[in-house]
Amino acid sequence: MKKPKLRKEELKKGIYILPSLFTCGNMTLGVLAILASSEGHFLWAAWFLIGALACDTLDGRIARVTKTTSEFGLQLDSLSDLVSFGVAPAVMMHMLVLNSLGNTGIAIAVLFVLCSALRLARFNVLAQSGEVHKHFKGLPTPASAGVVISFVLSYELLRPREYTINSMNIPIFSDMMPFFFRAMPIVMIALSFLMVSNIPYSSFKKTNLTRVRSIQLFSLLIVIGILLIVFPQHTFFIIFSMYAISGILFYFFRFFWSRRRKAGKKAEAATDTNN
Questions:
Q1: Average pLDDT, integer, range 202-215
Q2: Of 74, 89, 95, 215, which has the fewest Cβ atoms less than 10 A away?
């Protein structure tokens, strides 16, 4: 007896479930990170959020490849991101660093969550407009959380505990960790404002890593891969921090370049008038 063929509608629903499962995995890991942070297990919390970042990357990729992007998936993804990359990092940093600042620390944690929510709400509005954007407007919430997560990962792995991975660190960054620890309240505030800013950040959505034609880019990817294997905690911190800073540098570069071009055009116009 032959089995009945699946209808296209049933198959479509099944494909829609696949990216949603990764999105739910993202939220689940975010909740686990909050629970781990509340019990003082910051290393576990950081690794849970690294897993949440992986799920967040995969659900979008799968949805685009299978052409199953939907309004439901967009809203669910934003809710998951708010939990995993807004609330969870704020709770983690409050338990680890900000609690020593009293009410100021609470205010910084709340600011981070509120700016994450505003950033995600603006992203949803722009996504629903149907316009294709080459850059993100403001620092993406997962990238902002990535700076915090990778710092906690680096800081916790350097503590004098029974972690054999402690020896796998970059000495310069190991020496700078106490400074980063003291500066994290300011970093949290800066990340919060970067999320709601208009500074453009590269989306990398059109980057096809399977067709890398530049030898320099290919070599850079190999170096990054090696560093991730040998020095995972510090490499994550360097990558996320450089991405956060890149938007600021690019913004000021464009600002001064546009001013220079305008000054050049005015000088040319004045020269033509005199002639």
A1: 58
A2: 215
